[in-house]
Here is the input.
Amino acid sequence: MKVYIKSISKVLLVLASGLLLTNCSDDFLDQDKLGEETSDVYFNSQEKAVASLTAAYSDLKDYRFGWFFWAFGETLSDNAVYSGSDGDNAGFEPLKTFNGTADAFQVRLKWQLCYRGINKSSQTIEGTEAMDDELFESGMKARIIAEAKVLRAFYHFELVRAYGRIPVLDHLIRTADEKIGQSEIDDVYTFIISELEAAEPNLPVKSSYAASDLGRITKGFAQGLLAKVNLYAENYDAAKTWAKKVMDSNEYELDPDFAHIFSFDGENGIESVFEIDFIESDTETSAFRNNGNFQTLFQLPRNITYGYGINQPTQELADAFDAAGDIIRKEATLLTTDEVYANEIPQEVWDWYNVQTDMTVANDSLDQWKATLTFNRTGYYQEKIYVAPENRAASIRNNANNTRVMRYAEVLLMYAEACAQTSDDENARVALNEVRSRAGLSDVTASGSALIDAIYAERRLELAGENDRYHDLVRTNRANILPYWTEAKKYWPVPQAEIDNTTGEIIQNPGY
Amino acid sequence: MRKIACLALIMLLGWQVSWAQDALVKGVVTGAEDGLTIPGVSVVEKGTTNGTTTDFDGKYQINVGTDAVLVFSYIGMKTFEVAVGTQTEINVKLEADNVAMDEVVVVGYGVQKKSDVTGAVASVDFEDLESQPINSVNDAIKGRIAGVQVMSNSGSPGGSISIRVRGIGSVNNSDPLYVVDGVPTSDINFLNPNDIASVEVLKDASSSAIYGSRGANGVVLVTTKSGKTNTSPRVEVDAYYGVKEVLNNWETTSGSEWYAIQEEMNKTRTSPIDLSQVDPAVNTDWFDEITRSATVQDYNVSVSGGSDKLTYIMGAGFYDEEGTVYGSDYERINARLKTDYQAKDYLKIGTNINIQSNKRHSITEGSYHTGTINTAIKLEPVVPVWKNEAEGIYDYSKFTDYPNPVAQIEYDNYRTEQFRLLGNVYAELEIIKDLKFKTSYGLNRTVTDTYNFTPIYYVNNNQRNDINNVYRGYSKSVYQTWENTLSYHKTIEKHDIVALAGFTKEKSRSEWMSGSKNNIPNEDEALWYLDSGADGDLASGSASEYTLMSYLGRVNYAYDNKYLLTASFRADGSSRFSDGNRWGYFPSVAVGWKMSEEDFLKDIEWLSILKLRGGWGQIGNQNIGTYPYQTTMDGNSQYRYIFGVNEDVYQGYVVNAMKDENIQWETVESLNIGFDAALFDARLEVSFDWFDKDTKDMLLSIPIPYYYGYESGPTVNVGEANNKGVEMSFNWRDQIGSDFSYSIGLNVSTYKNEMVSLGSGEPITGGSYYLGSATRTEEGEAIGYFYGYKTDGVFQNQAEIDAHAIQQGGDNSGLQPGDMKFVDVNGDGTINGDDRTKIGDPNPDFTYGINLGAQYKNWEVSAFFQGSKGNDVFNAMKTHLYKFDETNKHKDMLNSWTPTNTNTNMPRLSGYDVNDTNRTSDRFVEDGSYMRLKNLMVAYNFPKRLLDKVKLTSAKLYFSGQNLWTITDYSGADPEIGQVSSTNYLSRGVDIGTYPQAKTYVVGVKLGF
Here is the structure.
């Protein structure tokens, strides 16, 4: 055997091995995630805590949250039918006839979206709580947590009034083996109320927020929501107290012009307690990237606009306005077929039509225009969410109109109801008549149960199209006026997928 | 292959030292077939270490005694022995040895004689493919290796391919690892097939375990051509030019047929469509409108050669292919240089550099809403292409919102340009005899530029763009490897040992960024750059990194050239996993027995070689994302909200996905048993393999309760899948007389795929198309089988409806005779989601390739067939073409049920379909079996006497055709259906308007100087 290089090779070998060994350290395998922060280091500044909170708000803007906000709040009631195309309408039919199953995607999405909001709120609360106080401007830490708590309470409230017994998520789940069962309805309300009460002192009133913070959760909304939740929990004294705090805050008044509330100019106006804000972001048109109000697209008249013509108000609702002699609010709530034609058929067509002499030809031509309005099942459309052609966004999901979640008028009606339930008829009538007088209606003088009925009737007309009617009917034990409704179906089924995904901690509601 | 071995041999023998001998014998060694001299032949005195090699001219001289026997050996040639006696000049003609098993094959981190291989390693020698218009490496191996399925996801030039080795290993990424000259890459589509010497596929765990955590789905090793030692410079020029025709079988209705069907459906529609808006005489064949006869051309030139110490090859190539669909094309330029230099007796160095750039225009694919081909199939024929062609105004559908595909192509300016530098440098040091240390640095650097410009256009409200936009994307990826290996080879009497130990480090970094702006002042192409835009600035970017550090080792031991043992081990540390979970260990062992070397078989005349082999190993799949264990903050645009009087948009951040910190790689454990045989003077070669491959710890996203509030659950190692199968190949080659030779090759493979466990997971749906999902993955079934309702013809009368299980409403009251009948699979009297069942399987019963070749004098002819049997296709396009809507209709709809046309399976035309007739069902599942004449080639080699006059050494003219003939029952354009896209793993066999393959006719020349 021939050895070519002896000592040199040995030196090289030693060097090479040395090189290898020094390179064998495990540090080489430590790679940080680039471009995205990992959760363990995220919460390190006030800005980031605020950005976490922004995400907790964002679920309000999700079109699916909005969809089932009205589809269950309004469409299930006697105020509206689902409508849309035959397929759209037929798809909602099982729910509308209270024959829906736990498999329905609507049932699943509402549940899913609310829990997403809860999760994000908990991320904010727990992330912010763990931060050093010095990282915040004065009051900001408490305010961020308070806003997140109200959001978490609001999402729970949306769930409990729909599904009844639900799991209460008072913390963020971090490992996939944790199980949380459903709480009794009373306990859910107790949790929501305690969350709101904890948050309320730390929130600014509407007027003390900076202009750049308009649209955030205010002390007024926390108090209004406390009034509302206490009504659902039938704690009328508490409801009365909280509603009164809103009234005494001098932050809110009724807008003298009812229709103005729902105009672009009326957004976040003097009567507004909480709104979900939308804008037209013209470069962002997809369903999740955009910042527009998808619900407007759903509810605009079908085919004559780009809308889907869904959630059409009923004749019954129109009749209720008429019976009350309520002209102002009917006009601002119900968009009639003729109004649709007047607004949506171009002015040139009308101008041409108005000078025609041969009305057979003229009417025939006009009828062709009118025929583009399809699947008009009731003759009415939701006017509160309607956007006239001149203001309408070019891209279909991008209309900028806000969704009104709570108005001062509702606070007055809640106060009235809480007073009436606690035999304080006098104060009840004062609050009720304040709302009626804005609508151009005469004062109610009734008392006792007649007064309560008058308040219920007022709620329907004042808040029609604002997604509370079905829940109100259930809450006040009047849902049996709805065809097919039964006490057994008082709460919706728990989504079947949730039962399938869990291992026994979630059980189906009775009746399904 | 041969040349590498030759090179090694020369080096080895070059070090031998001659002793003074009795007499000088000299001579010339030539090939028996061609009479050409052969350099580098080993000439050894039998029983001694005395030997030499032939020089550049095939000459040798050696001092030997008169009683000596000289042994002439050369890889690929039969060994020749001659007694010296008194001869002083011995000229030898060596005959070719057809026993291909003595070729060497490339295995991980080294080469091995094929006859010593104990694992399942298959090889494609590209010399055999010389006269075929192969556009990519993938194309070259398709159908040629048993057990390797190559599926085109698209026939688009430069389109993606998925390769599956031995079935589907995972519901996640099942792509094999590609290694080009030792450098791992994510795909091999970019390579110029002309540069390739061979492709080896390591199919089983015993052979791929040396690649540890990346070998689970097989390893594809690509070796590029090298120069040959002691050869004068050889210049090769190859060129071909071809014409392509699209394959299309869609049987869609004419304008008048469509009109008649719509008139019929209008009778039952609640809102009839206004047919007065269209003219039934218009008859647009949209598929025709978007397709063309296209061209393909390829030019290559290379210079190669070598001295006794230096070899080199330089080459350049240009490839240009038009797609058969307008708006798609691909252009590729390659250049390369590969050199190896024996700098010192103990030091060898080399470089290998590949530069590649390509440009690609592509059309919209993979979308079941607006995919260009998808749209062209489903758009109604009564829509004219143009409203006013002179003014460039397109027409559009009056009833649907699908885009005009011709306009879509015109307004789409998306293109990518890619530049790649791939190569390595190495030094190999022989420390002591037989012990070599090799260190090699490899680089794979890719830059991909994307360009787009969206002009202002208006076709109708659904197909419009009001603001023009310029987009620019840039991505860069750098992959670096540093490999260090020590190898040792020693033969002591009957023991032969090859040992390898190595340490490697690899690092990948990739980065992406893009920007776009709006309102470019005019649409001149010179302004399609970001600074031309006035506003609407958008920018985004991301980056990722990962590292891998490994120790590897392998021992090949042979005793008496009969008993073989291979054992390997690899330890991989990967940055993709959390501390404590980073290291994985991947062992393998395999044995072989060359039975034909045993005395009891040695005398069997017709048996040249018989080798049994068996192997076991464990390997991993770390192709599971770069940071799978880290919980991250997501700043998706969905998490924004609006605050303030000015309604400003604020970005929110959130954890939206739960992560499992303890995530680990998927592990594959496989067992392989097989044999290789050569019979009848090695005219027949047979190879057989049986395998059982278990994928354990498969990563699956486990469902979490919705009340957790996360958008997705953690991915955890819970799943298990199994693939079992058999692979066989037969090759027969023979010569009749001196002028005629022929060969027949056949390979067949089959596997059975089963999802053994999903852990706690729910069945996974996939293969989405516009009405739902076509595939399902659940325990006990094949991954991604087709799942839906079964149909049983149509109801012929009311009595049949009354007798049938409830499939509509609560009482079937909406049904009429002529409606589709669905099967109550579970027999509970109601047809609902629970009655969905297996309606098809995209996995074939078997796949095969048939290779026929013949040579007569100067003529060559070859045919290559390739096919698949027993696989199903989910024809999602038919869900449009059968639907009771306004889109284009299938000609089958003309045979719909009516009271007078009852002998049909097509339901009545219903404008109000309460029966959900087009739900996912077996109506859309078709037999996707096919046999295709993939290539047919006729070539003529110009005779030497002609060539000498023009100083050529070789010249070949050939005509070749691809995809000339296909036998299939599939009714779509092309039965070769891969996945919807390269990352949509559970969409195999779903046709949402796949870009079909083309028929290609090519004429080409190959010249050698």
User: Anything to note?
Assistant: Chain B has eleven helices and 53 strands. Confidence is low (pLDDT under 50) at residues 1-21 of chain B. Residues 2-14 of chain B form the longest helix (13 residues).
